[in-house]
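Input record (Table S2, row 317):
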Amino acid sequence: HRDLLGIAQLERHEILYLLDEAEPWVELNRQSSKHVDRLAGLTIINAFFENSTRTLLSFEIAGKRLGADVVNMHAAQSSVKKGETLIDTAITLNAMRADAIVIRHGSSGAVDLIASKVDCPVLNAGDGQHEHPTQALLDALALRHALRGRGEAAEDFTGLTVTICGDILHSRVARSNILCLQALGASVRLCAPPALMPVGVEAMGAQTFHDFDAALDGSDVVMMLRLQNERMQGQFIPSEREYHHLYGLTRERLKRAAPDALVMHPGPMNRGVEIDSEVADMLDRSIITRQVEMGVAIRMACLDILTRKARGVEGWA
Ligand code: CP
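Output record (phosphoric acid mono(formamide)ester complex):
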């Protein structure tokens, strides 16, 4: 079987294949009846060792809309709290003969470790500061839809400049998006306070900035990230008020980007800190709720594709 551990393991044509495979699910999800039997009889376990709203719910909805039996394991209510190790937890889930396991974990590499211990496909729902591949895929799908809605071809993102601003240091979303956006032809700019910019990130091919106004100049897409206070380990960062002054996306500041620049945020947002409400809620520019919508379709495509081998169906890119 094959896992989905990170964008780093995907070829460009595989990313495009995943996006194309999600399109029929976007259509299905917009109908009143949203149920098919494609994964009927399969069991999917969502094992979440960290909090989540969007990723957990959309994986659960995705599995159920495809007809699978979906069960959720919340670490806070599990035997992890009694001292059971990650490997023993993985062996336990494996013994229940799941057909796919979706994992979120606070440690980078934990999902890869579990994948090496189980027999079924494993999907990374975010591991530490490493990768969040389905987030990058749903972001690409939301961007593609927004560009097509404006009459642009959007086969890929060649010629597009995307600025990602915020806590880059702790962001698996940024890492997966750098890889995904660049694979699809976009130029990526990263902007963060010095303490929140990973050392050596330029080697990934992105341009780095500490001045948000300079980073925004002419950007076609602005992706805002929250400060991940739960992962801070003594980094020197400005107060929330100062952060907002330097790095908050305001209506005024957005004028520095391209005239019709799109605004994205993976959520959860801290309104008034990294993004003002009047920007987050701009109907013609913000695609934040569309990102959430595309999350269900992308996760349906991923679950469908990764279980094909077990179902005896051809067709992974
Ligand atoms: N974007 C994202 O992963 O959100 P959740 O933490 O709510 O799943």
